[in-house]
Every structure is written in structure tokens, then in C-alpha cells.
Predict the structure of Endonuclease V isoform X4.
Amino acid sequence: MEEDASTSGNSNISPQLVNEWIEIQDSLKKRLITDDEFDWKLPPMKDQDSEGMEENQDSNVEILKYVGGVDLSFSRNDSLIACATLVVLDISTLEVVHEDSSIIKLRIPYVPGFLAFREAPVLLELLKKMETTSPTLYPQVLMVDGNGLLHPRAPFLWISLLCHYWSLLKSLERSAGFGLACHLGVLADLPTIGIGKNAMWTTKSSLKPIFISVGHRVSLPSAIKIVKLFGRFRVPEPIRQADIRSKDFFRKHGLS
DNA sequence: GCGACAG
DNA sequence: ATCTTGTCGC
């Protein structure tokens, strides 16, 4: 009588557990910060419009340098086994300056809307470990494979997003979703950005967009600017590297 | 009651 | 997330 924590058809998740999860999300949401709240500043962007020339006076403030990315990959044979990977990239070189992975057995199934309860614990461990192991490279902002405020439990949100009502959106955000990026950001007290690769509606258009949403302590405009710094592939480099290296690490140890 | 559902 | 070849394009 072993439980199956793998499948998307969530096996034995009790409604009371889901209620607990909802309460946790709601309480963590109270700690969520959706404005810029970090001690670094964005590097100057190459093609920037009117507001590009802000106060370049602050020579005291350091410029964003270390951007992190996290992702999980899964075993083909045993879908309970996953590899969680944390990478940190130097934004000026785009090189990976830190990498760490850990293979774990998942105890919680994937339940849409509650991804964080499955994936956040391992990722938190990796972050905490790095905090003591190599604090000098610790990411100033973290890109998370999953959504932030744009979250399945807040379906009305993307409508607002698409309409560009960003200021209006702010007031709505607080009572909206709370995805993995938020969850992880609040628990690690680290600025995060959510990167979704498929959101809750099928893209019928020819283009395959990614979905950038606020995680924690980074505003949506800033999040977008940061993601644009990695404009080489569809998926921004930190997430992409975490994904690649997570799969590589897997092949090196267990069977693919 | 069923219906769209991040990874 | 994962199972899967060739293929179109920068």
C-alpha cells in the first residue's frame, strides 16, 4: 500500500489537506511584497526609451550581478524521484558561477494550484545550503520555474495582465494567486520572478509566449526588465540552465 | 454536476 | 514533469 505521489491524477489527497494548503497560502500571502524591494539596481539596458535615464547618481548602490534559477526534473522509471537544481549566473558573462543539485523522493503529488507544496521544500534546502556554503555568490534575484501572482487559483488575473492595467492590477494582486515563485520568495525572503511556460490557457496563436509574473519583492515592470536581460532563447537562461543541468545530473547518477 | 488548471 | 524523430530556422 504505497502511495503514488507522481501522477497528475492526484491519488489520495484529502480535502482537509487541501484546506490546510489554502490556509498556508493565504497566510504567506500576507507577507508578500509586490514592489521593488532590493538593495541593488538594474543594469543599464541597451535600447531603452524615455525613462531609461533615471538617477544614475547612486554610485553607492551595487548593480545586479547574480541571478539564480531553479528547476526540477523527473526520473523516467520512477516518477517519484526528482532532481532539484539551483544555478546562479553572472549577468555580465551569462556564465554559470554556481550549481547544486539534490535528488529526492517526492512525498506530495502534483496538485494544480499547489505546486509549491511539492517543490518548494527542496528548493529552500538548496538555497539555505548555499547561504552557508558560498554566500558570496548567493543570488540577488531568483527566477522560478512556475508562476507567481499569475496562478491557477486566480484566473481573472491574466485578463488584467493582458490589458496592461498595471497600476490597477496592483490592487488586485494582493487578493489574487500565490504560486511557487511567491511561496519560495516569501519563505526564503528573496526577490523572485515567476516564469511560466504554459499558463492555464492553450496558446492557439503561432507564437509560444512565456508568462512572467511577480514572485516576491520585484515589481512586474522590473521583472520584465530582468528577464529581458536574458533574451537569447525563449526560456531565460537561468531557468534554462537549471533545467539542462538538472537533467544532466540525473543521467550521471540514477538511470535517466 | 461538469468545466481550463503552473510542474 | 515524462514518453518521442526529424526538421525548420538563425
Summary: Chain A has one domain: 15-252.
